TrEMBL record:
GO-annotated biological processes: phosphoenolpyruvate-dependent sugar phosphotransferase system; regulation of DNA-templated transcription
Keyword DNA-binding set for record: yes
Source organism of the structure: Lactobacillus kimbladii
InterPro entries in UniProt: AAA+_ATPase (IPR003593), P-loop_NTPase (IPR027417), PRD (IPR011608), PRD_sf (IPR036634), PTS_EIIA_man-typ (IPR004701), PTS_EIIA_man-typ_sf (IPR036662), Sigma_54_int (IPR002078), WH-like_DNA-bd_sf (IPR036388)
Domain PTS EIIA type-4 positions: 504-635
A Pfam match: Sigma54_activat
Protein name as catalogued: DNA translocase FtsK
Length: 863
């Protein structure tokens, strides 16, 4: 995913297809962002040199021309050296012939390189000809021979000194209509400085030995020195150089530019020797933090030396530069530079960052899957933040984005924290840790899939996840929503999550007009020190149906079940509100009208103390008569069947699907996790299940004797089948529907039983065909086979069909010469007709041996 500011940049480019400039407001509207956030992104793009800004109210934005000027090659041109570059350009373009400048800075800081770029820029701008010369003189080379220096610089006439046999032009002549760069200018003697400032004033000079006829030239000057110019150069000379530029030391450059300089020299070496270079991030960190006495020049030499020390001319493999501890192998954070590669160091870091994020995700998922404490997850995140400073993730860590994100987090947590009474737990240090990880995530283009962790987190911390989503909804910054939830939860909610999740009652308050509900909610939650209530501020003219829709949406977002629900209203028809809301719930419901802050606090404290719904409802009856109270206790208001399976809700949901498909009576099918069922049975008396017809489960549970609990596997037995049929009959189901249900359940269990044993046949296709065969046997012999026998018979027939299709028949087939009884002969005759269609379909023949096995099964069942 592209960083948000660059998506803003792309949108701005689209808008500029039709116009020459756009305003911040236009970009904000197109991106659906606030004006403040959009302005922040545009300002960042401007400082990166990607945009032009004009005007004040309003500000207009334009794209910078794609034509790259010479200074684009300069690392820091859009960063720490931006102002310097701007001044250099001014020195080139100022009419009529620019003006001279002097560049100061320590040795190796890039003075000569900057001078060469000024010359290239002047050519690009057309202020000097393409063929103009860039003449360089290091004054230190002639420091001990002032006369020779003067002759080299200004030229000389024949006879000017011994050995001057002919006239000779100097460097000033050669630089005519171009640039003359005098390095180490402080080494110029006083006389030469005086000659220079005359030349600077008038463009005139006298060669050595000439005092009558001057020369006229048009030379642009660049001077450089490592010394303090006020101490070494004449004031009269300095006054004629209006621009003084000071280049910083390597140690004074921003961190990102240090990395860019290292990247530049590594790429240069890879191209120069045509060999891939692998360098550990630890070594890069050493180069960044090491004091470079010779600055950039010294850095270049150190990188060259590192490559040379690890170079083997007979080995064509990559040059591997390990860290300073000489550690190699899979644990080293490598960055790889290939010859002619365009990969940036930051892109290489992003590849490594994906690896680190994958490791982080794997650790968090494993811990969550093992139900580890949230404090352990918090420690894992802290470790990741700590390690950012030691590995290449640091290269994509955007401090500007983190700062913007922190502002958003502070605003959002202030608002949400106050409403839900948890502000004191959301301190700035925790927010900073979350922001650091989220800033790294924001930079990665190809993030690992976090859906599995998100599912577990939502299951284990549903209420806390809801609060995280509330905080996220307050943001104006574009971040990865899926990653935000677990990262923010682990980083910020480690102390309070357990307390938030311990609440077993759902509490909601609804008020009409203004922010009454939110205000009361904030007071109660803060005094309770926990997220107890959710509040909804509704318009005065809202209908009960609209209120119910709002509550329904909130309930669906909870992602968990509660023992009961408490709804507080400020006004309205209680009976109508009760009818609208109670159908949404499968738990106890208490509705109180005409709420006050005092009553809401009383309820909040009871919920905080884990009082049962029943006790809270009983106390509510003693509230003032002006407050209407109505409550319903029970797992459901409708007639219901509970389905629970030890193996999880997946199997229970399949059984629910079968029941809903077949049953005709208006009955609700409720699925529950096995442990949830046990807990519910333990916490409630029989009245809680007054509308429950029976419970279907795969395991026996302790329950009240009055409650019918059937084991799903027992209904395959005769007694279990009779019991299920009786209960369904009492519900009003017809025999036809009951027969159909047992057939569907038989089919379901049969398919499940043979799925892993059939290699060729599709059980979903073959089982209905076999059930039809079994039904024909029942009709012919006028018998009702038990479900358990049908299950066994169906599995046998399915496996038999596959054996015959794969020609894996027994060696005993057709060898039994024993005389068959009349009953057996009759069975063979009937079976031959019953199996006829399936034999035709699958192109098989069911031999006498297979028929004898089926006969034995029927015979055993009838005895």
């Amino acid at each position: 995913m592209k960083k948000a500011k660059y998506r803003v940049f792309e949108k701005l480019r689209q808008l500029l297809d039709d116009k020459s400039a756009v305003t911040t407001k236009e970009v904000a509207k197109a991106m659906n962002l606030s004006r403040g956030v959009t302005s922040s992104y545009l300002a960042q793009l401007y400082h990166e040199g990607l945009l032009l800004k004009k005007g004040t109210k309003p500000v207009y934005w334009q794209l910078i021309s794609n034509s790259q000027d010479a200074f684009e090659q300069l690392i820091g041109a859009n960063g720490s050296l931006k102002n310097i570059v701007s001044q250099c350009k001014a020195s080139v373009n100022y009419p009529p012939s620019g003006f001279p400048l002097i560049i100061t800075g320590p040795s190796g800081s890039g003075k000569s390189y900057l001078a060469s770029l000024i010359f290239k820029y002047a050519q690009q701008e057309g202020v000097i000809n393409k063929g103009a010369h860039f003449v360089v003189l290091n004054c230190a080379d002639y420091a001990n021979n002032p006369e020779l220096l003067s002759s080299v610089l200004f030229g000389y006439k024949k006879g000017a000194f011994t050995g001057a046999d002919t006239d000779k032009t100097g460097l000033v002549d050669q630089a005519d209509n171009g640039y003359l760069f005098l390095d180490e200018v402080h080494r110029l003697p006083r006389e030469s400085q005086e000659k220079l400032f005359v030349l600077l004033d008038s463009g005139k000079f006298y060669p050595l030995g000439e005092n009558k006829h001057f020369k006229q030239v048009n030379v642009r000057f660049i001077f450089a020195t490592t010394e303090k110019i006020e101490d070494k150069l004449l004031n009269t000379f300095l006054r004629r150089v209006p621009l003084k530029i000071a280049l910083p030391r390597f140690s004074e450059r921003p961190l990102v530019e240090k990395y860019q300089l290292i990247e530049f020299f590594l790429k240069h070496e890879a191209n120069r020797i045509n060999r891939t270079i692998k360098i550990s991030f630890n070594t890069i960190q050493v180069l960044v933090n090491q004091k470079q006495e010779g600055n950039i020049g010294s850095l270049a030499n150190k990188i060259k030396l590192l490559c040379a020390e690890n170079f083997n001319s007979s080995d064509k493999k990559a040059i591997e530069i390990p860290n300073n501890k000489n550690i190699s192998g899979p644990n080293v954070d490598w960055l790889v530079f290939k010859p002619n590669s365009q990969d940036l160091l930051v892109n290489l870091a992003k590849e490594n960052s994906k690896k680190y994020l994958s490791t982080l995700l794997s650790t968090l998922y494993d811990n969550e899957n093992k139900n580890r404490e949230i404090s352990e997850q918090n420690l894992v995140l802290n470790q990741f933040v700590h390690d950012i400073k030691r590995n290449s993730v640091l290269l994509i860590y955007d401090q500007n984005f983190e700062k913007l994100l922190m502002q958003q987090l502070a605003t959002a947590t202030e608002k949400i924290g106050k409403k839900y009474g948890i502000l004191k737990y959301l301190n700035s240090q925790k927010l900073c840790e979350a922001a650091k990880v989220l800033s790294v995530i924001q930079e990665c283009l190809d993030l690992p899939d976090i859906s599995n962790l998100l599912t577990l987190v939502s299951k284990h911390y549903p209420r806390t996840v809801y609060l995280c989503k509330q905080i996220r909804s307050c943001f104006k910054v574009d971040i990865n929503n899926d990653w935000f939830i677990p990262i923010f939860l682990y980083a910020v909610f480690d102390e309070i999550a357990g307390k938030i999740e311990s609440q077993n009652l759902l509490a909601i308050m609804v008020c009409h007009g203004g922010n009454v509900a939110s205000d009361i909610c904030a007071i109660v939650n803060e005094l309770c020190g926990n997220y107890i209530f959710e509040a909804f501020d509704m318009p005065l003219n809202v209908s009960n149906h609209e209120i119910a829709q709002k509550i329904e949406l909130y309930i669906r977002k909870q992602g968990r079940k509660y023992d009961g629900t408490i709804l507080l209203f400020d006004m309205g028809s209680l009976s109508n509100l009760y009818k609208e809301v109670k159908v949404l719930l499968n738990n106890d419901l208490l509705v109180i009208n005409n709420l006050t802050t005092e009553i809401a606090l009383d309820l909040g404290l009871q919920i905080q103390q884990n009082k049962s719904f029943k006790k809270i409802a009983e106390k509510a009856e003693s509230y003032p008569s002006t407050m209407s109270v109505k409550y319903f206790e029970g797992i459901s208001q409708k007639a219901n069947i509970i389905v629970s399976c030890m193996s999880g809700e997946g199997l229970a949901e399949e059984i629910k699907r079968i029941l809903q498909k077949v049953l005709q009576t208006d009955v609700e099918i409720i699925t529950m996790d096995y442990h949830e069922l046990k807990s519910t049975l333990q916490r409630h008396d029989l009245s809680y299940f007054k509308n429950t017809n029976f419970i279907l489960t795969t395991n026996n549970v302790d329950h009240q004797k009055e409650l019918d609990v059937l084991n799903l596997y027992d209904i395959m037995d005769e007694d279990g089948d009779k019991r299920l049929r009786q209960l369904l009959k009492e519900m009003g189901e017809t025999k036809k529907n009951v027969d159909k249900l047992t057939s569907e359940l038989l089919k379901f269990f049969t398919i499940g039983g043979i799925k892993g044993r059939l290699r060729f046949l599709n059980p979903d296709v073959v089982i209905p065909e076999i059930q039809e065969i079994v039904a024909k046997f029942e009709n012919y012999y006028h018998v009702t086979l038990t479900n358990k026998f049908k299950l066994s018979l169906c599995m046998h027939l399915a496996l038999m069909l596959e054996r015959l299709m794969l020609d894996q028949t027994s060696d005993q087939e057709s060898k039994d010469t024993q005389e068959k009884s009349k009953e057996e002969k009759d069975f063979y005759h009937v079976a031959d007709k019953i199996f006829h269609n399936i034999e035709q379909k699958y192109n098989i023949k069911i031999n006498d041996y297979e028929l004898s096995l089926i006969y034995e099964l029927f015979k055993t069942n009838s005895e």
